[in-house]
Design a protein that fits this description.
Elements (H helix, E strand, L loop, with lengths): L7 H6 E6 L4 H7 L3 H13 L2 E2 L5 E2 L11 H8 L3 E2 L5 H4 L3 E9 L3 H12 L4 E9 L13 E2 L2
């Protein structure tokens, strides 16, 4: 992941890395957040700080493994927010959202919505792996912006 070939504008603009947060129950069960571990490993390579508290999961969600693509979107809809005290840090910034695996992009899309609502200008996404889903027609995730 550290060797991803980013476009020049992303290299110049990205200012922070934000991992997808886990719910409290899942974090307690696992003992770690795999997206946060990835983000912390990428930070020195990408010369960008990790803001683990800039995106918060405000409600527990069911495991997405056995859900259909449309059920996945509903499951994570409005599951994330940017705390009011972190909005100034995001305002107008280009951030990199990190997750471990992407399937239908429902989780990433919900996180992107929250980050844009929280003031981020551009969100680039990076994931460790891609799990193909029969109902998933999205082959590539690129930058998300709010016009």
């Amino acid at each position: 992941m550290a060797r991803l070939d980013w476009p020049a504008d992303v290299l110049e603009e990205r200012s922070m890395i934000i991992p997808i947060p886990l719910g409290r129950g899942r974090l307690r069960e696992r003992g770690y957040n795999q997206a946060e571990l990835l983000a912390n490993g990428l930070s020195p390579w990408w010369r960008a700080s990790v803001l683990s508290d800039a995106l918060v999961r405000v409600r527990e969600t069911r495991s997405q493994v056995r859900l259909t693509p449309s059920d996945r979107s509903g499951n994570v809809s409005r599951a994330f927010v940017v705390p009011k005290d972190r909005r100034a840090a995001l305002r107008g910034r280009h951030v990199v959202l990190v997750d471990d695996v992407i399937t239908t992009a429902a989780t990433v899309n919900a996180a992107v919505d929250a980050l844009l609502d929280g003031g981020a200008r551009i969100i680039s996404c990076a994931t460790f792996g891609r799990a193909p889903d029969p109902g998933d027609r999205t082959a590539h995730i690129s930058d998300f912006t709010r016009n």
